[in-house]
Design brief:
With about 270 residues, this protein is mostly helical. The protein has one domain. It is built from 12 helices and 2 strands. A two-stranded parallel ribbon has the order 1-2. Helix 3 runs parallel beside helix 7, helix 5 packs antiparallel against helix 9 and helix 8 runs parallel beside helix 12. The chain is globular.
Length: about 270
Amino acid sequence: MSNITLDYPVTSAQVRKSLPPSSFGRLLKVEARKLVDTRAGFWLILSGVVLTVAALIVTAVLSQLPEVRGPDTVLTWFTVSSTSSILSIFLGVLAILTMTTEWTTRTALTTFTLEPRRLRVAAAKMLVLALATLVMILFSVVVGAVVIAVLKATGGNVNWSMPLGELGAFTVQTLFNTFMAAGFALLMANTAAAIVAYFALPMAAGVLVSFGDIMPNLGKVAPWIAFQPSLSALSAGPMTGVQWAQLAVVVLLWIGIPTAIGLVLWQRRQVS
């Protein structure tokens, strides 16, 4: 039996040279397909859609019960569309899975062999998550319109009010929640740890706000570090200069710094 000896070993660099360069548009398509191609991604999206619809319907129906609403309470299209917190939870978990799956399922070797510029992969994932968030918000608005139409046809106390300013604030809040989850996932590269951080850390910071009346010094610091209260100010009316500064600091602390450190680790993390 004779042995066959190759003249040279085939390396990943030679594999990359034999393939056409990946455009950013192709990366976007690949990352978008990853959201639904996997079994976990498909069922997560389906569950999120079903639960969001159910939450909007239940909230709208309960708000029309005499025991719940006041005589002058009017349910608006915007209120129905932006009521469900399940939407933010679902998008946060989706963002975490999108960023950590490369490492937890050992697909990073294939991904970074085909596209060695890791920052482009991370940018594609972030943009796909932003687009998915906008699509889900649009879906929530459409479902809200259907709910309002049904309630109005059945004599419910509703109207078609949809202030663009409030809708814009809700969109920014949801996007920030998604980016915060993605930042934690980039930083930790572990699904369980990122999910715990996504839920527990903002909750812990919110506890500081609740102690503001008891501890005045803590109350002064809390708006500069608590994530959700600063985001809520977006939809509470015109913001002051101090509130804008607080929002900028909070976004830097909760999104900017974790994402920046996570991107550095993303480029240096060992692929195995």
